[in-house]
C-alpha cells in the first residue's frame, strides 16, 4: 500500500481572479490514486459558469499584464521558477502519488518545469522584431502583440511539467490564460496558486479551472473570448477540439498521439540501442507520447535483439511509485489500465508474446503491468497501428532500407522517430524519409528547449518550443511607413 504524502488538500478548488474558489454550482468529483484506486480527495467540477468567471478575470487582467515591458514579465517568470524549485520534494511526492509515476522519475519534473520558465523569460527578453527597408521610399517593421486570453488544456502524464510547458510561453508573451488540468491528475496543479502568488503574478493573469473535459474543457474551447487553444492529449480529442474551434476561427496548437518507430540496423551499437529502447518505451510507465513503441529491427540482428529486449523487460523493476528502486509504477487510472490490458489481450492473438503481458505476482492490487514485448508483429496488427500508451512494445522485422522506411511510415501517426546505425549517411537518409516531426539518430529523446516540438499526420497541428511558442501566443502586425513622396496612380483625377 502506498503511503499518502503529507499536506494533501481535502479538496482541490479553482483559482480564479487570484482567489481559491469552489465550483459555481458546488459540484465536485473524486480523485483516486492508482495504487489503491480509492478516492483520497475531491476536486471542484467546473462547468460553463466557472469558465465564464475565469474568462472575465483574464480579460480584465490582460491590459495590465500585456502592457508591461518584456523584462519585467521575465522577472516574474524567474520568480516562478524559484518558487517551483523550492517545492521540488513536495511536487515529486504529489506527482508520484497522483499519477503512479516512479518517485525517481517524478523528481526531475520540478527542475524541468523551472527551466521552462527561465528559458522563456530569456527568450522574451532577447526577442527582436523584423524590419524591412525598400530603398529610400518605404520602411516596414513588425509589431508583435499578445493574442489575448489563451486556453490551455493539459494531459495527465507528467502533468506539472507539461502545464509549465504551456504556462511559461503564454505568460512570457503577455497573454492571460485559463488552465484546465487533466481530471485524473489534478493534485500537482493545486500547487500553482501558491507559486503564482509567491512570485507576484497579478490577480487574473492565470486562472485554473478543474473539471471533466466534456464540461469544463468544452466550455473553454467554445468560449468566443478565448481566441487561442493549446491542447496536448489524444488524437480523437484533438480532432474534436479543432472542429469545435472552427466556429470562432480560433488559433490552435495540437500535440496529439504517437506510435513512434525505433529503426535498428544490423550495424547499430546494440548495447546503446537496447538501453534506449528499454528506457524510451518503459520510462514514465510507458505513458509518453514520444515512446518508441514500434521497434523495427534488421533481419541479421532481429533474433538477438528481440531476445535481449525481452530479457531486459523481464528484469525491469515494477513496484510502488514511492519506492526509489521502482522503474515502472502503477498506470494512472483504472479506465486507462483496462484499456492497456485489452491491447495486451489483442496482442496475444496477433503476435508472439515474449515478455510480460500480466500483473507481476508480487503486486496483488493497483494498476500494474509487467513491461510487455510482442515479437513478429505484422504491419496491419492493431498493436502495431494503434497507440497503447503503456509499457507495451511491438517488434517487427525488416530486410532493407526501403522496407524500414515503409514500415516506419505505415501508421497514421508521425510524432517522433529514432534511428540506430553506424552509417551516418544512411541515418540522415532515413531521418529525411521518415514522416515525423522529430527524429533522433543514435540517441533517445534528449530535447533542446530551443527546438520545435510537434508532429505530422495524426500526431498534431503546429509547433511549440523556442521561438515557435512565442509565435503561437502572439500576433505579428506589419507597419509600413513612407519615407518620401508617395506616387500613387490618380484614379478618378482626369476630367
Question: What report would you give on this structure?
Answer:
Helix content is 39%, strand content 20%. The protein is α/β, with parallel strands linked by helices and 495 residues long. The chain starts with 10 loop residues before the first strand and ends in a 13-residue tail after the last strand. The mean pLDDT is 96.
Largest sheet: 7 strands, mixed
From the spread of the alpha carbons, the general shape counts as globular
Distance between the termini: 94 Å
Mean pLDDT score: 96
Helix content: 25-40%
In terms of per-residue confidence, which ranges show pLDDT below 50 for 5 or more consecutive residues?
none
**Oligomeric state as shown:** single chain
Number of helices: 15
Give the DSSP E fraction (strand runs of 2 or more residues): 15-25%
Structural class: alpha/beta
Please count the beta strands (DSSP E, at least 2 residues each): 21
Main-sheet strand order equals 15-16-17-14-13-18-19
- What is the radius of gyration? 24 Å
Amino acid at each position: 500500500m502506498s503511503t499518502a504524502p503529507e499536506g494533501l488538500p481535502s479538496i482541490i478548488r479553482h483559482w480564479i481572479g487570484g482567489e481559491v474558489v469552489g465550483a459555481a454550482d458546488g459540484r465536485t468529483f473524486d480523485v483516486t490514486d492508482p495504487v489503491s484506486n480509492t478516492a483520497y480527495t475531491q476536486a471542484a467540477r467546473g462547468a460553463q459558469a466557472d469558465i465564464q468567471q475565469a474568462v472575465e478575470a483574464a480579460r480584465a487582467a490582460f491590459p495590465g499584464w500585456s502592457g508591461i515591458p518584456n523584462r519585467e514579465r521575465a522577472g516574474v517568470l524567474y520568480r516562478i521558477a524559484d518558487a517551483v524549485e523550492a517545492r521540488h520534494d513536495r511536487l515529486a511526492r504529489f506527482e508520484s502519488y497522483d499519477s503512479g509515476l516512479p518517485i525517481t522519475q517524478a523528481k526531475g519534473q520540478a527542475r524541468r518545469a523551472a527551466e521552462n520558465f527561465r528559458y522563456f523569460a530569456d527568450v522574451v527578453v532577447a526577442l527582436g522584431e523584423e524590419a524591412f527597408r525598400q530603398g529610400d521610399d518605404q520602411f516596414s517593421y513588425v509589431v508583435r502583440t499578445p493574442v489575448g486570453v489563451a486556453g490551455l488544456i493539459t494531459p495527465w502524464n507528467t502533468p506539472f511539467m507539461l502545464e509549465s510547458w504551456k504556462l511559461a510561453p503564454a505568460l512570457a508573451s503577455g497573454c492571460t490564460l485559463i488552465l484546465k488540468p487533466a481530471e485524473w491528475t489534478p493534485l500537482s496543479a493545486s500547487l500553482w496558486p501558491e507559486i503564482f502568488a509567491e512570485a507576484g503574478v497579478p490577480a487574473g493573469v492565470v486562472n485554473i479551472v478543474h473539471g471533466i473535459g466534456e464540461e469544463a474543457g468544452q466550455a473553454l474551447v467554445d468560449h468566443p473570448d478565448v481566441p487561442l487553444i493549446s491542447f496536448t492529449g489524444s488524437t480523437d480529442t484533438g480532432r474534436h477540439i479543432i472542429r469545435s474551434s472552427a466556429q470562432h476561427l480560433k488559433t490552435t496548437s495540437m500535440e496529439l498521439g504517437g506510435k513512434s518507430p525505433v529503426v535498428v540496423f544490423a550495424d547499430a551499437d546494440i548495447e546503446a540501442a537496447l538501453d534506449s529502447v528499454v528506457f524510451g518505451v518503459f520510462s514514465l510507465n510507458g505513458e509518453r507520447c514520444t515512446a518508441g513503441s514500434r521497434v523495427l529491427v534488421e533481419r541479421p540482428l532481429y533474433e538477438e535483439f528481440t531476445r535481449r529486449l525481452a530479457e531486459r523487460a523481464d528484469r525491469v523493476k515494477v513496484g510502488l511509485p514511492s519506492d526509489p528502486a521502482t522503474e515502472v509504477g502503477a498506470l494512472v487510472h483504472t479506465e486507462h489500465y483496462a484499456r492497456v490490458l485489452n491491447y495486451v489481450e489483442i496482442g496475444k492473438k496477433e503476435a508472439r508474446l515474449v515478455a510480460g503481458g500480466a500483473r507481476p505476482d508480487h503486486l496483488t492490487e493497483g494498476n500494474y503491468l509487467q513491461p510487455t514485448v510482442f515479437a513478429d508483429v505484422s504491419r496491419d496488427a492493431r498493436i502495431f497501428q494503434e497507440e497503447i500508451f503503456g509499457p507495451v512494445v511491438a517488434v517487427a522485422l525488416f530486410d532493407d532500407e526501403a522496407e524500414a522506411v515503409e514500415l516506419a511510415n505505415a501508421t497514421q501517426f508521425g510524432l517522433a522517430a529514432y534511428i540506430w546505425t553506424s552509417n551516418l549517411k544512411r541515418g540522415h537518409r532515413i531521418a529525411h524519409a521518415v514522416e515525423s516531426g522529430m527524429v533522433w539518430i543514435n540517441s533517445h529523446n534528449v530535447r533542446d528547449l530551443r527546438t520545435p516540438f510537434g508532429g505530422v499526420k495524426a500526431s498534431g497541428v503546429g509547433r511549440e518550443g523556442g521561438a515557435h511558442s512565442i509565435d503561437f501566443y502572439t500576433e505579428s502586425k506589419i507597419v509600413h511607413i513612407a519615407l518620401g513622396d508617395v506616387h500613387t496612380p490618380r484614379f478618378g483625377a482626369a476630367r
